[in-house]
Amino acid sequence: MAKAARAVMKKIISPIEDFMQMEMAGGLVLMTVTFLAMVWANSPFYHSYHQLVHMEMGFAIGSFEMFHSLHTWINDGLMVIFFFVVGLEIKRELIVGELSAPKKAALPMFAALGGMVVPALIY
Which of 18, 64, 72, 105, CA to CA, is 20 to 30 A from 54? Predict the structure, then answer.
């Protein structure tokens, strides 16, 4: 029986492991979850989404307490980690990766600059 259970688990886990080995897996998961959140937030069930996002979460250690909404934890915590990782990846690419040559880095740098300047000008 244990052998059959292992075979079933291997058939379930193997495709997941293969997907996670792909470079674009993180981006696909992020886009899918973002799309689902947008659909949920704009559906007739938006009240449950609102309740989830504004649910208080936190911890207490002795007399120290830190409770905030899920929205605050995401904005103040997870976004810091996200941009830290993105910054490390950009640094790596600029030092040893595809963007280490100035000619190759020029287009992404101008695109990033335009992505900051154009919205500011529109505003």
Answer: 64
User: Helices marked H in the chain — which ranges?
Assistant: 2-21, 25-41, 46-53, 70-73, 79-95, 102-122
The residue assigned the tokens 């799309």 is 35
Q: What is the pTM of this model?
A: 0.59
Cα gap 25→20, rounded to integer Å: 6
Q: Compute the average pLDDT of residues 85-95.
A: 90
Residues with Cβ within 8 Å of 98's Cβ and at least 6 positions away in sequence, in order, are 104
The DSSP 8-state label assigned to residue 75 in this structure reads I
CA geometry: angle at 99 spanning 95 and 104, to 5°? 145
Q: Could you give the CA distance from residue 6 to residue 3 in angstroms, rounded to a whole number?
A: 5
Within 13 Å and on the Cβ side, how many CA atoms surround 40? 13
pLDDT band at 1 (very low <50, low <70, confident <90, very high): low
d(CA 102, CA 95): 11
